């Protein structure tokens, strides 16, 4: 029997409608709404489309959303000044600076300039540190946080399971491992992290009850690398040439979907899997940041 599909699109729609209700209630109670600022430097088409999707999803949930686009040659000091202004802006509760940034800008410096209370990406070292020491009252990075929600909402709690994460980036692999290791709901897993220097990847991935792949290369995981009955989460989003399509490309994940769906128990598709959840968790973090600002 082929694997059941984990539809990120459907789970995201459910969470977004809950968020819209939460925002409406907050507005009725306080007369204010959460505000999100997205900052894009340059004109990379993929980044432009992600930022557009984030803004339109925010607006649909009733979140005030401002998109700031700067030219690719923007000096670092100017971006830091913009971030300082957003930190001081009482109508903005979440700040997202789309990565990657152009070469003249030190990414780490920019991430450190964001007020940790407005860091809805969860990339500020204070939030990274809190998460990796097990804090639960922290804004968690959207992609891995979305993966946790997908697991919980399909009855695939990571508690007590062996979770193998392939990839050790700061935006996906590492925070994924931190979340899975946390005590409590959504965590309590036994975690292995693999990467490009892992000699026999298949020997590791075959041990996984839950396999999470965030590499950025199509077909990194094939059916022979998956234990029968495993849950497979494909974070990868890769554009591959497809001259017969309108856009000229199609999206594939890091997992050989057609092969792996024959051995896995559950699998996420690309598109329509983790991607929509990432955007939804950004909205969720923005509403959380707004609520916390009311408590201060
Ligand atoms: N759906 C979503 O919302 C999101 C999707 N993505 C997608 O997820 C993928 C990963 O993104 P990101 O983490 O930023 O990528 P990075 O390039 O930052 O990290 C990739 C990781 O994969 C490892 N790796 C590379 N090749 C191999 C290999 N052959 N075997 C095992 N490990 C390997 C690298 O190892 P090493 O550290 O040794 O170099 C690195 O740790 C991309 O396709 C990206 O587009 C990213 C963010 C959000
Ligand atoms: N500061 C920062 N925060 C991020 O969260 C961040 C970032 N920088 N840089 C780039 C990555 C990538 N990322 C994605 C978000 C949504 C989809 C997504 O919704 N994908 C759709 C398809 C989209 C399409 O059609 O192109 C899907 O998989 O179904 C994908 C990828 C967030 N990132
Ligand atoms: Mg750079």
From TrEMBL:
Family per UniProt? Belongs to the tetrahydrofolate dehydrogenase/cyclohydrolase family.
The residue ranges of the Tetrahydrofolate dehydrogenase/cyclohydrolase catalytic domain are: 6-121
Domain Tetrahydrofolate dehydrogenase/cyclohydrolase NAD(P)-binding: where? 141-292
Known EC number(s)? 1.5.1.5, 3.5.4.9
Write down the species: Gaopeijia maritima
Record's keyword terms, sorted:
Amino-acid biosynthesis, Histidine biosynthesis, Hydrolase, Methionine biosynthesis, Multifunctional enzyme, NADP, One-carbon metabolism, Oxidoreductase, Purine biosynthesis
Q: Which residues bind NADP(+)?
A: 167-169, 237
| SUBUNIT field | Homodimer.
Q: In which pathway does it act?
A: One-carbon metabolism; tetrahydrofolate interconversion
Q: What role does this protein play?
A: Catalyzes the oxidation of 5,10-methylenetetrahydrofolate to 5,10-methenyltetrahydrofolate and then the hydrolysis of 5,10-methenyltetrahydrofolate to 10-formyltetrahydrofolate.
Q: What is this protein called?
A: Bifunctional protein FolD
Q: Which reaction does it catalyse?
A: (6R)-5,10-methylene-5,6,7,8-tetrahydrofolate + NADP(+) = (6R)-5,10-methenyltetrahydrofolate + NADPH; (6R)-5,10-methenyltetrahydrofolate + H2O = (6R)-10-formyltetrahydrofolate + H(+)
Q: Which Gene3D superfamilies match?
A: Leucine Dehydrogenase, chain A, domain 1, NAD(P)-binding Rossmann-like Domain
Pfam families listed in its UniProt record: THF_DHG_CYH, THF_DHG_CYH_C
> Would I find Signal among this entry's keywords?
no
């Amino acid at each position: 029997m082929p694997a059941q599909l984990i539809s990120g699109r459907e789970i995201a729609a459910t969470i977004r409608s809950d968020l819209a209700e939460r925002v409406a209630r907050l507005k009725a109670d306080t007369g204010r709404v959460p505000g999100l600022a997205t900052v894009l430097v340059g004109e990379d088409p993929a980044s432009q489309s992600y930022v557009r999707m984030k803004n339109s999803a925010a607006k649909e949930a009733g979140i005030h959303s401002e998109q700031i686009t700067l030219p690719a040659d923007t000096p670092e000091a100017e971006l830091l000044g913009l971030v300082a202004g957003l930190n001081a802006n009482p109508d903005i509760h979440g700040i997202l600076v789309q990565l990657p940034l152009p070469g003249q800008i030190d990414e780490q410096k920019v991430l450190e300039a964001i007020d940790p209370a407005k860091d809805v990406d969860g990339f500020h070292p204070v939030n990274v540190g809190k998460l990796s020491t097990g804090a639960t009252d922290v804004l968690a990075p959207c992609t891995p946080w979305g993966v946790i929600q997908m697991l919980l909402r399909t009855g695939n709690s990571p508690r007590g399971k062996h979770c193998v994460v392939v990839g050790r980036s700061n935006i996906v692999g590492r925070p994924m491992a931190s979340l899975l290791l946390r005590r409590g709901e959504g965590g309590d897993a036994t975690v292995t992290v693999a990467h490009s220097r892992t000699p026999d990847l298949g020997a590791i991935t075959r041990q996984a009850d839950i396999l999470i792949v965030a590499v950025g290369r199509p077909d990194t995981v094939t059916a022979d690398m998956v234990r029968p009955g495993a849950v497979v989460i494909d974070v990868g989003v890769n554009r591959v040439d497809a001259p017969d399509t309108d856009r000229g490309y199609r999206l594939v994940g890091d997992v050989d979907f057609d092969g792996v769906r024959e051995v896995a128990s559950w699998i996420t598709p690309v598109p329509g899997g983790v991607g929509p959840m990432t955007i939804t968790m950004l909205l969720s973090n923005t509403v959380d940041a707004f609520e916390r600002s009311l408590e201060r």
